[in-house]
Design a protein that fits this description.
By secondary structure, the chain is of the alpha/beta class. The chain contains nine helices and 14 strands. Helix 5 packs antiparallel against helix 6. Bound molecules: zinc ion (ZN) and fe (iii) ion.
Amino acid sequence: MNALEYVPVPAFEDNYIWLVSDGRHAVAVDPGEAAPVRAYLAKRGWQLSAILLTHHHQDHVGGVADLLNGQDVPVYGPAGESIERLTYRLKSGDRVSLVEPALEFRVLDVPGHTSGHIAYFQAADPAGTPHVFCGDTLFACGCGRLFEGTSAQMLKSLDELAALPGDTQVHCAHEYTLSNIRFALAAEPDNLALQAWRDKATALRERGVPTLPTTIGHEKAVNPFLRADQPAIQTTLAEQLHESVLDRLTAFTLLREWKNRFR
Ligand code: ZN
Ligand code: FE
């Protein structure tokens, strides 16, 4: 089997539209804008063969109609959200099988950011590496805002992602890493892996290089939203917010609310 290439195409201020290609055909994930995708496809001589959508927000679906433009390209998306132009409506446990490029995904329901948000898990690329496209659910060192779901839903969704293999490449839809790391350090200042990641991510961004993909194993070590059970984080919450943290969901909820107002 041919190797696959996973490319983050920058869009808007800080979105990434991920393309997966076998060198001839490409799948686009969450194309909020058509122009950067079209330009990248043209540059590489790739032909668009499918579109995958994680949720209904405009910065993820806004380029679909323009990219299709009469082409017969299937569009996959969540069954639980109202999105125009969907060919296939997916829910948890569904399989997506694409021929060109050859890709197999399992669909995960990951509500919280939006109520019907899904993620696409590829158990193994031709080299055996797993991948997940998680939209605005899990970010490097962060998680999505709760626009439609509850914190209990989001915690459950993040638990499902955290249960994927540690070497799973996590393809997030935004470059939020540096600001997320600032918050993560406020929550867990003594985390050595987090301090090292701050230095590395800062150097990457100074060179204009994406900090993504991350991995599930790395996120478990540095992402406060996957670490709400850690005593160090619960102590910070108690000190900063003067709230007593009784359980993991409370800690997670307080973290998410604190992040909303953190500058
Ligand atoms: Zn969103
Ligand atoms: Fe987004």
